[in-house]
What we know:
- There is one protein chain.
- By secondary structure, this protein is an alpha+beta fold.
- 55% of the residues lie in helices and 18% in strands.
- The protein is built from 17 helices and 12 strands.
- The protein has helices spanning 12-22, 29-70, 86-94, 128-133, 135-138, 159-165, 205-208, 216-222, 242-252, 262-265, 267-305, 307-315, 320-351, 353-364, 371-374, 385-411, 415-419, and strands at residues 74-77, 99-114, 117-126, 141-144, 154-158, 172-177, 182-183, 186-187, 190-200, 211-215, 231-236, 258-261.
- Helix 13 packs antiparallel against helix 16 (385-411).
- The longest helix has 42 residues, at 29-70.
Amino acid sequence: MKKNQNPTPFSYxxxxxxxxxxKSKKKDGVISIIAIFSLIGIILGVATLIIVLAVMNGFRxxxxxxxxxxxxxxxxxxxxxxxxxxxxYSKSIISISGISNAIPxxxxxVMISSGDITNGALIKGVTREGILSINKISQNIKLxxxxxxxxxxxxxxxxxxxxxxxxxxxxxxxxxxxxGAQTPFxxxxxxxxxxxxxxxxxxxSEYDGNIIYMPLLEAQRYFNKKDAVSGIEIFLDNPDEVExxxxxxxxxxxxxxxxxxxxxxxxxxxxxxxxxxDLMFIIVSLIVLVAGLNIISGxxxxxxxxxxxxxxxxxxxxxRNSIMRIFFITGxxxxxxxxxxxxxxxxxxxxxxxxxxxxxxxxxxxDLFSPEMYYLTKLPAEINISELxxxxxxxxxxxxxxxxxxxxxxSKVDPVVALRYQ
Length: 422
């Protein structure tokens, strides 16, 4: 190369020199090890970040879908627990555009018993039309059917409750309510057996193991609520727009009842999920940051080791900017390669996360995702494209920024001083 004839920016010459520095040599063993650990660190950091965010998103989506699929998006309740004229209110509410259904409901806590097993449960009394309109129940019947769910003395329960209580379709389950008949000696508990006609499974242990559905008229008789219900559960076409409908419903009921939305009932739960997700993003991002710092240390050692090479290149006509770009390519290549390998690993892991969980559980003999603890029967993972792009940008930014100082330091090497003692 002739003196003062500089290559064009990011030319073949610069890429070739950077490629040589990336190759492992015996005398550069320590530098190569640092580069390898930097690469592994970025891969693990990016993959872990994608997996954590995907699992958090999956949790939120699955829980939200199941909560909103079972419970009303807006609930109208009387303050004393008895709402009369519910049929008229239901007709007026369902006439509002954007409201798909308004289901009168009775809900109350009871004790359930089968043989020597006793547990607690939540009774929900609904009409046959009401339960058929709740797709999460009617479309997830695992055994039995809803054909006889009218005004008979029948119930349907979740599969997890059936397992816990040791019962099946056709068996009976005894319900015990403390709100029974009034006698001269006080209130006696109401005890009655009901036949199980169907088992449902929505995949959320909190519901599959604790909720019992009963025909509305039978629930009114059992809980002594003649001509009354506990409330009206309202389902919207778009659950995110509950605020737009609450005021309309309050006007229909003349502000005589308590009107609440799913956002108010579950605000603490979903806020906790959002906070946890944001904190996990920050914590896991530190892995990528540490890997970026490893790139800095590796490049500084490389610059120190290649001082004589830099001096020779400078005397052959390479400019300071050319030297800077060579070391920039060296460091950025590690970051870019690690980022995109990490993205591939993270996506593959998320797409097969439940299979991996089951595999690890079988190998270790432990339950890594207990439904009783985490509410869901499967480990969910949902990759958000905008978040994926944010992770890629963040990792690439860390990697590029990490190369700037070592590259700048390499460009400032004085060839006269570097070659004085060579």
